[in-house]
Predict the 3D structure of the following.
Amino acid sequence: MQLFLLTAHEMHDLLIKKEISAEELNKAVFARIDAVEEQIGAYITRTRENALAQARAVDRQIRHGEKISPLSGIPIAIKDNICTDGIKTTAGSKILSNFIPPYSATVVKRLEAVGGAIAGKANLDEFAMGSSNENSAFFATRNPWDTSRVPGGSSGGSAAAVAAGEAVCALGSDTGGSIRQPASFCGVVGMKPTYGAVSRYGLIAYASSLDQIGPFARDVTDCALMLNAICGHDPLDSTSAKYQVVDYTGFLTDDVRGMKLGVPEEYMAEGTDPAVRCVILKAMKKLESLGAVVEYTSLPHAEYALPTYYLIAQAEASSNLARYDGVRYGMRAKGAEDVIDMFMKTRSQGFGNEVKRRIMLGTYVLSAGYHDAYYLKALKARTLIIGDFDRVFKKYDLLLSPVSSTTAFRIGEKMNNPLQMYLSDLCTSSVNLAGIPGLSIPCGLAGGLPVGLQLIGRPFDEGKLLRAAYTFEQNTDYHKQFPEL
Amino acid sequence: MITKKDIEHVALLSRLELTGPEKDMYTRQLNDILNHFQFLARLDTENVQPTAHVLPLQNVFREDWVGRHISREDALANCPDREENYFKVPKIV
């Protein structure tokens, strides 16, 4: 096994046995980046010197016999909509192409505090708006399993980096599926935690009532280690929840006996690619054979989740993105006659098509005369969608579904049809509306491309998701399959 | 039905300047999207309370104390144009 494909916990074992130094380990990952980045394009910015400096500090700790954290010296990619002090943070947009934050997001500070080595800033759809990474203002990331295909999005760079061995773990953000869908397309583990479980301080906002930061990893153990580092209340985020933080590795037991798993029939309906469906059904049988009780159930309002999600997300986005005006940071268009003209020109030149489309849709549904018919209607539908989950979680511990109805699609395939692109969020966006945790775990290949099984849980019940995912992983070997590059 | 005039109005509210072909494109696309979402109108939401936020949060207060904050230079470091300690913009009136 090549060094750059090991998991964080395997690397940690080598570090504490002194079989390898953190510097060697980081150099191996950066050599891998040099070798494959041209094909993949996972990073907008690479921070080699920053990672090596952190690695050397970890090596000094090890030499002095100090105890190191499980993520000490581990190369981690950060989605480029998460602020890093002194390191360019673009959100994949021309309008922020020169923005150097004067502070770091809480999640970045927490990773650095446990010795994590920030390897670079990962590519994304502009302002996290997209399902393919093709909306990045800079370049499209490619799927390591087939470079003619998309890695998913919006956290496509983070997922591709972990799948290709260009990072060991990564952070992404998930507003309607932006961690789980690329994790599924790239064959890695990705988790959207409960809303409020992870601080959003320093995350460039898309839709504030839905956005949540979460990890990518090559296995469930690493996912738990990342959660341990980033979870917990943060006074700098007023929507951060005050809850009892636990050691998530404590849930990594190989046992799902008696666990009740519901399969919403609406998520398995027609429209799901037959090959994907087949892989998902096999994964469900596997969990059943391991002692879980798997039954079909229903989320009666499931079909309303997609319009509800898009109306709410775009309304919030139109408000959040009003701040980009060319005054305090970011680009400013030249040749404006007055300040309003400067706003107009800056925003028109700085935002890409998809971002403009969403700002306009959001502005429209909030505008006088349409607010009640669209935005208020969506907020009421959200209540009913949450009610569906509350009901099924009285009976089931977790829900199972495909993450996406297809495997990774071809670059360019859906670019001219925004509506078709939006439909890829069908099985994931309701989870954001309800604020509950969701995890994607590799469960096999369809036509040579990875398929992700989605596990959905009750609020703050990440532990149960990890236990079921860990059990599945221990009894399969999908997490040991890597793309050939 | 969204008209081109609606798109022009929304673009102005959004502070976006659109070319002729862009106006046509967005008129078509926003109609496509909202038409597809039209079935949401059929959902009975009589007596349903709206949910703006999943967490049962009220205003979050803290004591008013002077904390650490970034320096004036850092705050101005990213601005496209400045004069002394001010953000500079083109003429307003």
Observations:
- The longest strand of chain A covers residues 438-446.
- The CA atoms of residues 271 and 485 of chain A lie 31 Å apart.
- Residues 371-395 of chain A form the longest helix (25 residues).
- Chain A has a mean pLDDT of 96.
